[in-house]
Amino acid sequence: MKNLGYYNGKFDELEKMTVPMNDRVHWFGDGVYDAGPCRNYNIFAIDEHVDRFFNSAALLDIVMPLTKQALKDLLQELVRKLDTGNQFVYYQVTRGTGIRNHVFTPGKGNLWVTLVPAEISDGTTPIQVITEPDTRFYHCNIKTVNLIPSVMAAEHAKQKGCKEAIFYRPGGRITECAHSNCHIIKDGKLYTAPTDELILPGIARAHLIRKCKELGIGVSETPYYLKDLMNAEEILVTSSSNFCLRVDYIDGQKVGGKQSALFEKIRKTLLDEFLQATN
């Protein structure tokens, strides 16, 4: 297969898959998801992603239809059905199926999986971004499928020829990006927003922090602001699709580029970890 869709035990090419109209995701966006890269049919950091997936569901009282190990076994089975081993693996669970009603539908959730061919960026090409007011709710730490603010911000970035949008809250506090985490290098140290209800605790973010500590680079998980972003020595963007990207323009203004050697050390370390884990 070139791609694959899965829904509650049934699978086929994405274009041939259908789901019930009364899945609660259609009425309320009532579900959570997770996703990550696969290389050579090896799903990277699967334990961390599945743990976060189950935690997101638990925070919203969604009943998982299978165990963590059963999900990991299923995902490993499904990736083998594609023609290429380099894929992006997405999975979500919705609260269930029933007539539209705001109160919960009793029972187990519905499991969705999609697999599409994908390659990981090596992070050598810097990106341009925009800044965007963060209009999201206060459950950003839960990876829900309610992504309208992120969708609109991503579209605004695209319209301006940019790759990502960096969110800020009233007062200028930087939270994260439309579909990534954001960090800065200042005085040779990594600064990243704390994992409170305003950001998603990214898996790539966790790997970045861990590798910086291994490299002897100081890490501070504290709030930082628009002025810090614009004056940073480097601005880094991380996600499960792009482990470490460097920003060179924000809202058309040249930024960063003052710690190129340090960025390269971080970038290479993260990429090497991925390549070694997926051989």
Describe this structure as you would to a colleague.
Strand 3 and strand 4 (42-43) form a beta hairpin. The longest helix is centred in the last third of the chain and has 18 residues, at 260-277. The chain has 279 residues and is α+β, with helices and mostly antiparallel strands. It folds into 2 domains: 4-117, D-amino Acid Aminotransferase, Chain A, domain 1; 127-277, Alpha-Beta Barrel (D-amino Acid Aminotransferase, Chain A, domain 2), CATH 3.20.10.10. It has helices at residues 24-28, 46-59, 68-79, 148-159, 203-214, 226-231, 260-277, and strands spanning 4-7, 10-12, 31-39, 42-43, 87-94, 110-117, 127-133, 164-168, 174-177, 181-186, 189-192, 219-221, 234-238, 245-250, 253-254. The strands form 2 sheets. Strands 7, 8, 9, 10, 11, 12, 13, 14 and 15 form a 9-stranded mixed beta sheet that branches. A 6-stranded antiparallel beta sheet has the order 2-1-6-5-3-4. It contains 7 helices and 15 strands.
